Amino acid sequence: MKFGIVYHWRDPFEIVQMADDFLELRIFEEDLKNKYRPWKSKLKELRKDWDYEISIHMPEYFEHPNTGLNTLVDLASTERKIYNFSLEVIKTLIEFGKSIEASKIIIHPGGISEQPALGDTTKKMDRLKKSLSEISGMEFAGDILLENMPWFYWRRDGTRWFSTICYTPQDFRPLLKYCDGMVLDFSHGYLSDSSGSNRYLEEYTELYKDQIQYVHIADSLPPDNEGLQIGEGNINFEGILNKLDKTQLWLVPEVWKGHENFGEGFEIALDRINHLI
Ligand SMILES: [Zn+2]
Can you name the residues that pair with 214 across neighbouring β-strands? Predict the structure, then answer.
């Protein structure tokens, strides 16, 4: 098992030092705008002394070229423009990943909506299959991983929206052949519906043990409380982690505001996880 830490180039060096094996780079729309330039120079600097592997988490938003508004990257969008822009964002992300020899790139499925899923989601799933197959056709030596979503989705502005696809294990079955594996986000999996259940997480491990290469770790409470410190919610970490294939697993703590105070929250989370496994 490999242990990493979530990192943005503005974070202090103390955060980098907490990673045992890898850094998960968090990308924001400003990074898209400046064409990843600060990242490239920062990583060059870090790599003089440190030999970390790299994973990259896709940006959640991009600045819409027509409206100037921050818009969710949505690879399942049925709106042609949003779909095309989103695909472009991910393609440049993969080019960036290639240029820094990243090992893994984490992709969200999209399909986030102001209203809950009503009826047929075939169209969105088809768009997602199409975008993923285009992405997987790109020349990239690492793994493209698809992450599971929670039922309630918090936007950055504090409004609560909904996932309409990929919030239950079943949706992943037709999708995983278009990527290299999946990220199991513990908080998201537990909150697959508003009542919250470890049963959902167990189901992911039963169905996709071989495909789950990567885990995001934080605790949760129903109906929508994600990113809690380990032990402050209801997730059975020990039971679920022991069902996964630890030889291939990459783990990052994803505790809300864990990077503050030089990564205090991340450190506590890693310590608690190490005591559980
Ligand atoms: Zn994510």
Answer: 183, 250
Cβ atoms within 10 A of the Cβ of 83, count? Answer: 19
Ligand 1 centroid distance, CA of 108 (Å): 6
- Cβ within 8 Å of residue 199, ≥6 positions away: none
Ligand 1 center from residue 57 Cα (angstroms)? 7
80 Cα to the center of ligand 1, angstroms: 23
Backbone angles phi, psi at 250, to 5 degrees: -105, 135
> What is the rounded distance in angstroms from the CA atom of residue 251 to the CA atom of residue 213?
9
| Pairing between β-strand 160-163 and β-strand 112-113 as defined by DSSP bridges | antiparallel
Q: 246 CB contacts (<8 Å, ≥6 apart)? A: 1, 277
Using CA atoms, how far apart are residues 184 and 212, in angstroms rounded to an integer? 6
Q: Is this model's pTM higher than 0.90 or not?
A: yes
- Helices 80-99 & 122-136 angle (0-180, nearest 10): 30
Query: Residue 164's closest CA among 40, 261, 271, 78?
Result: 78
Distance 107 CA to ligand 1 centre (A): 7
Q: Is the pLDDT confidence value at 210 over 90?
A: yes
Q: In this predicted model, what pLDDT tens digit does every residue of 48-92 receive, in sequence order? A: 888 899 999 999 999 999 999 999 999 999 999 999 999 999 999
Cα(123) to ligand 1 centroid in Å equals: 23
Residues with beta carbon < 5 A to ion ligand 1? 147
CA 200 – ligand 1 centroid, Å? 18
